[in-house]
């Protein structure tokens, strides 16, 4: 249902993506169901849609050097966290 609304409104500009852990290079560890990964893949395959910018908000403790990912995992454009 959400994809229909997004297509009718012209597309997304920004998407906040949740996760359990992140890397500074945009890797994300979710809860294992693949909801956001599959949504982003389907959205990016729609004709005429502008690219959506993805951001994750995290605590410093959620940032790691690397996150195990597969080919189906969508990367995040930016991870924002407080380094203090």
Gist of the model:
Helices cover 23% and strands 24% of the residues. The chain has two helices and six strands, in the order αβββαβββ. The protein has one domain (2-81): Rossmann fold (3-Layer(aba) Sandwich).
What does this structure look like?
It is a single chain. By secondary structure, the chain is an alpha/beta fold. The chain has a single domain, classed as NagB/RpiA/CoA transferase-like (Rossmann fold), CATH 3.40.50.10420. 23% of the residues lie in helices and 24% in strands. It contains two helices and six strands. It has helices spanning 2-9, 35-45; strands at 14-16, 21-23, 28-29, 53-58, 63-64, 78-81. The strands form two sheets. Strands 1-4-6 form a three-stranded parallel sheet, with no helix packed on it. Strand 2 and strand 3 (28-29) form a beta hairpin. The longest helix has 11 residues, at 35-45. The termini are far apart. The mean pLDDT is 85.
């Amino acid at each position: 249902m959400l994809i229909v609304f997004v297509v009718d409104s012209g597309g997304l500009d920004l998407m906040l993506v949740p996760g359990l852990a992140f890397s500074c290079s945009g890797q994300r560890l979710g809860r294992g169901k693949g909801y956001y990964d599959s949504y982003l893949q389907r959205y990016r395959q729609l004709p005429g849609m502008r690219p959506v910018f993805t951001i994750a908000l995290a605590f410093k403790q959620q940032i790691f050097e690397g996150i195990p990912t597969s080919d189906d995992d969508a990367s995040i454009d930016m991870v924002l966290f407080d380094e203090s």
